[in-house]
User: Fold histidine kinase from Pelosinus propionicus DSM 13327.
Amino acid sequence: MFAKIRNELTLRYAIVMMLMMMAFIVVSSTGLLWILYQEEQQDLRSFTEEEAREQAEMYKEKTIFFQLPPKETEDVDHGAKIFYYVFDISRQIVATEEPSQLIRTGVLRIIHNWDASDGEVKLKKFLLPNGDRAVVMLCSMKIYDGSQVLGTIYVGEDISAYYHMLKMLLIMMVIISITFLIIAAFAGHSLAGKAMIPIKQAFSRQREFVADASHELRTPLSILQTSVEVVQTDNDQKLSAFSIQVLDDMKSEIRRMTRLVTDLLTLARADAGATNIIKEKFDLAATAEPLIRSVQPLAMVKEIHLEMSGDETIPIMADREKISQLLLILVDNAIKYTPKGGRVEVSLTRTVTPKTMVTIAVHDTGEGISENERKLIFERFYRVNKVRSREEGGTGLGLSIAKWIVDAHGGKIKVENTPGIGSSFIIHLPL
Ligand code: ADP
Assistant:
């Protein structure tokens, strides 16, 4: 139980950490990209305006467009590569400056399909002939002489290096985050373990208390029971009808308390791991038969037809006492919660496929259990109808004990039923 809580705490802590790291990566990388993009965009636009002006001046002086000296291109950005293409009004390239011929085809294709307005900056990606991915920022601007359009200049910046750098940065951030996450998960697991030490101690003290108290209560309860019986059998004493009734009530309350205390002690010992499962080989059918016979009187009182069916011999390796207790709990419940004149059937079968196992099924024609209640009935002290359970002498611990016995044998217990028609408690136990 504690290991499960500890793992759950660690998982939740790791999920919170992961979400926080993801939020940090997304916010920081988007923020960084946005700032860089805005800055580059601004630079490229001013540079394009300047060049368009310069080209217009040169054209007026020499009636030719002008090839930029290489140093100009380096002013704009360190590391980034500036290029430009000037087109005249008949869409012929008349001047160009490019750091590498490689990008030409890709950039010209983009220019050919250019759909942005004057001065607008666009980010474009394309594949280079050598298979690499190039990322460029492009800006176009018309070159004017007064109101006459002389041509168009397309200025671009190859930011592939930045792009790859940012990509690497992002990958590194993700790797670092995952590493921190793993470290945080281990630290969380260890901290959760430390935080649970006092809880474990308190829980074990409480468990010891329940076990000790139940154990201590057994002796006075059995003395009380014997005393009541002695008073009841004392013929010399003249008891009024009222006193006889009181003694009867006392006896049944003492019996109920004894059962409750025994159940509590069983569960407290099971929790503390103090109950050993002693497995032996025995025939389940032969063990069940006298047990069913012993509860027949209970069934007869309620005119319930109780029968056993299934295989004649079922050799099983299990704790005989515990399996008998399990059967008794289920049959007792079936009789308790089945109205007068109903049926209870205990079926014991051995199946080979898909796995070799023993199936114990207790079917009844009682009130059934609703879907919501089915998950809860195995919890301690959970009773669908408290008054009803009390009237029937129930403690609310029977099914918790049954589940513990099944779990301790590595089996599975489930309830199948139709409310109003009856319930079936089905148990699969490995051989
Ligand atoms: P109790 O001592 O109250 O019978 P259990 O742990 O054995 O406690 O059962 C828990 C609750 O499950 C019961 O109070 C009852 O409401 C419900 N229950 C158990 N067995 C049956 C059954 N065969 N049919 C209907 N309800 C059942």
About this structure: Residues 214 and 261 are 5 Å apart (CA to CA). Confidence is low (pLDDT under 50) at residues 70-78.
